[in-house]
Design a protein that fits this description.
4 strands; mainly alpha; 2 domains; single chain; two-stranded antiparallel ribbon; two-stranded antiparallel sheet; 12 helices
Length: 257
């Protein structure tokens, strides 16, 4: 470590992983306002934040699979925090949002634009509702960032139309509810079709349309919105590739053959 530099703390690294998850891969640089904001909040330079984000990129298995190396000098603590985050999607995202709210001198509700008038005044029920909404917001941010705000099927880039869809449903796999590799950016129509098993994505990232829809070839709307995408590859994310195990589950259990 160079003279004058200070060691990164666990809390600072958790905040950096939080930001890594929520920024598109091409925006992990020192000029990004979000990078500058975190630097100001924790008393570091934007260059140091950006460099740490690139360190995390070197640990990202999805990037490794694409041959993208990132910076190669991540520390032992970098690896520990990265592995802790990736092993505890059910806890670390919420912890990171609480840390961010604390240093922003605000509440986690305000940070995530949760209308407090819709919440119980206090108690466990309020805490549970807040945690669920914060986690949903984090998941959406990380998925849309990974897909650069682009529907993986149609290429639509209008955020209002996009949903962070789960491959394994929220109710089925609690541990992976917030795992970005269990998510896809998809428009509302195709999300409904995916959710109900009328389309799926194969482990080699191809769109597969159910015979229920394929047999409706005379319907122009079904042809335009579904059949024409059959066997085409999805638009892949810049990181957090969909997990093959989760895709296999959807193919075998959810898809209507």
């Amino acid at each position: 470590m160079k003279e004058g530099q200070k060691l990164w703390t666990r809390e600072e690294l958790i905040l950096a992983v939080n930001l890594y998850c929520k920024l598109p891969f091409g925006k992990l640089h020192s000029r990004n306002p979000d990078v500058i904001n975190l630097a100001n909040l924790i008393g570091r330079t934007s260059n140091s934040i950006a460099y740490k984000l690139v360190n995390f990129a070197s640990l990202d298995p999805s990037l490794k699979a694409r041959g993208i190396k990132g910076a190669l000098n991540s520390s032992k603590l970098d690896k520990e925090i990265w592995n802790e985050f990736f092993s505890h999607w059910d806890e670390l995202p919420f912890e990171s949002e609480k840390l961010l709210a604390k240093i922003e001198k605000t509440t986690v509700e305000k940070l995530n634009h949760i209308n407090e008038n819709e919440l119980p005044k206090e108690g466990k029920t309020r805490e549970q509702i807040v945690k669920v909404r914060v986690n949903q917001s984090f998941f959406r941010s990380s998925i849309l960032a990974s897909y650069n705000n682009t529907c993986c099927i149609t290429g639509i880039q209008q955020p209002e139309f996009l949903i962070a869809g789960h491959i394994k449903p929220w109710s089925i796999d609690e541990k992976n509810r917030l795992n970005p590799q269990n998510g896809i950016a998809i428009n509302a129509l195709h999300d409904k079709a995916f959710e109900t098993g009328l389309i799926t994505i194969t482990p080699d990232f191809k769109i597969k349309v159910s015979p229920i829809l394929l047999n409706q070839k005379k319907s122009k709307s079904i042809e335009d919105f579904f059949i024409k995408y059959n066997n085409k590859k999805i638009i892949l994310p810049s990181r957090f590739l969909p997990n093959e195990e989760f895709l296999r589950y959807h193919n075998e259990i959810r898809f209507k053959n």
